[in-house]
Design brief:
Length: 248
């Protein structure tokens, strides 16, 4: 029997029995973890508030073996809130839907429990912090998060050089299957010709050029979001359920 301590973001919760919950977290040191929190649905629970979606918390786990991830789910025995990001997200529809899509994306990219995914974890913490503070439009924060999540998982799209032959851009055609923009000679069936403004916006979101991103026109933001959604869908092999509710 062992005790473990890690900080993590609560991705989702599921009811268990009359008073318990199964909590899914993305942690710094152990990747995605599912654990049982006993009694958190009771009104007198002392640590239930720290185990709500979007919460950033320091969590103590109790596991029956020498490893946190074993045959049975560990128990959450103690929590300390680091940052209640849900307070600034859950009360605003645009932020809430964008944040929910971010949580789902993080879970999809960390399907193997117990495998550290530090870059994905740090991306999620930073994205939720920015979203909760309202520093930029929620849909732009979401698209930036999606692009960077793709990048840290080895699927970075190209927005300048041809993704197939490497010829220097700008290149006009875009193909999700090819990996981003492609030149005329490498054009493949199914490729599209997005506006140069939409491609420039996506490049700015990927690199963190918020001055450029914040100045974009709504029509170019919508076009860019469509490309991001299609690219993510291709690499995840199925879309995110939560994306359909995101305001553009």
């Amino acid at each position: 029997m062992s005790l473990f301590r890690d900080d993590g973001i609560v991705l989702r919760t599921q009811k268990l029995g009359e008073a318990d919950r199964i909590i899914t977290l993305l942690t710094r040191g152990h990747g995605r973890v599912r654990a049982v929190a006993r009694g958190v649905r009771r009104t007198k629970s002392k640590f239930g508030a720290g185990l709500e979606p979007f919460s950033h918390a320091d969590v103590q786990f109790f596991a029956r073996g020498s490893e946190l991830i074993g045959r049975s789910l560990p128990l959450c025995t103690q929590t300390e809130i680091i940052a209640p990001y849900g307070n600034g997200i859950a009360t605003d529809y645009a932020r809430y839907t964008a944040g929910t899509a971010m949580l789902e994306t993080a879970e999809r990219f960390t399907e193997n429990e117990g495998e550290p995914a530090v870059q994905q974890y740090l991306l999620l913490v930073g994205g939720l912090r920015t979203l909760s503070r309202g520093e930029h439009e929620p849909h732009l924060i979401l698209d930036a998060f999606l692009l960077r999540s793709l990048a840290v998982n080895g699927y970075a799209p190209s927005f300048e050089d041809c993704a197939k032959c490497g010829i220097h851009g700008p290149n006009r055609h875009f193909s999700v299957a090819a990996g981003g923009v492609i030149c005329g000679d490498c054009r493949v069936p199914g490729s599209v010709v997005p506006s140069s403004e939409a491609i420039a916006l996506l490049s700015a979101l990927l690199t963190g050029d918020w001055k450029h991103a914040d100045a974009c026109e709504p029509r170019h933001a919508r076009e860019g979001s469509g490309l991001v959604s299609a690219y993510l869908h291709w690499h995840l092999e199925r879309g995110l359920r939560s994306l359909r509710y995101v305001e553009k």
